[in-house]
Here is the input.
Amino acid sequence: EDQVTQSPEALRLQEGESSSLNCSYTVSGLRGLFWYRQDPGKGPEFLFTLYSAGEEKEKERLKATLTKKESFLHITAPKPEDSATYLCAVQDPGNQFYFGTGTSLTVIP
Amino acid sequence: DGGITQSPKYLFRKEGQNVTLSCEQNLNHDAMYWYRQDPGQGLRLIYYSQIVNDFQKGDIAEGYSVSREKKESFPLTVTSAQKNPTAFYLCASSIGRRNTGELFFGEGSRLTVL
Here is the structure.
């Protein structure tokens, strides 16, 4: 069964303290891995798509990487406005999407 | 601006009532999805539609119904048969089955059963 596991469940960082969020997955025929940011009471906001192992994408303080079994979302020198829940999802060959439970990030000033 | 519009944002329902959540998209996407989000759980798929006039059950379809009469619209009805309907509901769309593409989400609808 296709699965997505995110860790840690929650992460508290001091402003400027870099860290990484992990997303491990098991899916046959990965078509894409996606990262989203979700603020409380809002819909998820798309961040990145990764298609193949070795691929990297960057946006401001965020960088996403992909291996054959997992993806990392690296946050460099985070700011309080980066506080949110970060969701990982994978797409299988049947165009189905499977989501992890997310990592709740809190950045303390 | 292109996007997905869900309404209402907040909805209260008495037990035994059916309610319908609206989802409209102007992205010209073929595929549309409904997810349910509960605290501490990942998004769970209720129904999805890859094309107009066709839809399939997801993992938790019991107590829900949908229609896809127009490409732009994918309303979800929460029926009285749904035992625990209080949740945050998210509608999403993607380009479609032949393409790899991310999901775009609406802002969500929060349903509370009184």
Observations:
- The two ends of chain A are 41 Å apart (CA to CA).
- Chain A touches chain B at residues 4, 31-32, 34, 36, 41-46, 49, 51, 87, 89, 91, 94-102 (CB under 8 Å).
- Residues 38 and 44 of chain A are 4 Å apart (CA to CA).
